[in-house]
Amino acid sequence: MAESTLRIARHSAIPVPPVAMTHHRPILALDLGTSTGWAIRGHDGLITSGTVSLRPGRFDGGGMRYLRFTNWLTEIDRLSGPIAAIWFEEVRRHAGTDAAHVYGGLMATLTAWAELRGVPYEGVPVGTIKRHASGKGNADKAAMVAAVRARGFSPADDNEADAIAILLWAIDTNGGLA
Predict the structure, then answer these.
(1) Are 34 and 8 a contacting pair, CB within 8 Å?
(2) For the segment 159-177, what is each residue's pLDDT rounded down to a tens digit?
(3) Looking at beta carbons, which pairs linking 38-46 to residues 24 or more positions away fall under 8 Å?
(4) Using CA atoms, how far apart are residues 114 and 71, in angstroms rounded to an integer?
């Protein structure tokens, strides 16, 4: 069989064998933070990934990052969806108070958005993601980026790499809700 070229993420193309027409349910993986990493497997089985900046602007009120996140979720659902399930990195400890507050606000926004639409969601512990991607539950950022690159992806940063790793874990362990 001839091989086709599949665009993965924004940066690389890798050869993949042709696939019979398969219909997948779109699933989304997120690494929540001011720079949120995301990866989605679409209806066609292709994985697309990137980051979305949720940094507030100079004149933004405190809730604007969460409104932008809600709008972004709605748009990705409209363009790629409907999203069948969402997995996100479940962080239990943060280095700083501000990061913990941002994470909590983004998680509250995400879970409320998903509940309103009946989309199942699940947090995945950090160590589980790292162990699945790199073989080490305490892998550093560079090791995670390297592990995702070894799978044929070209993440722009560790946030995108983490989101790809979460998506690959979800597909490998849950069948990605085939």
Answers:
(1) no
(2) 999 999 999 999 999 865 5
(3) 38/76, 38/160, 38/163, 39/160, 39/163, 39/164, 39/166, 39/167, 40/76, 40/80, 40/83, 40/167, 41/167, 41/171, 41/176, 42/80, 43/80, 45/19, 46/6, 46/7, 46/8
(4) 13
Confidence band, pLDDT 50/70/90 cuts, at residue 19: very low
Q: Is 80 helix (H, G, I), strand (E, B) or coil?
A: helix
> What are the boundaries of each domain within the chain?
4-177
pTM score? 0.83
- According to CATH, the superfamily of the domain at 4-177 is Ribonuclease H-like superfamily/Ribonuclease H (3.30.420.10)
Of residues 120 and 1, more confidently modeled: 120
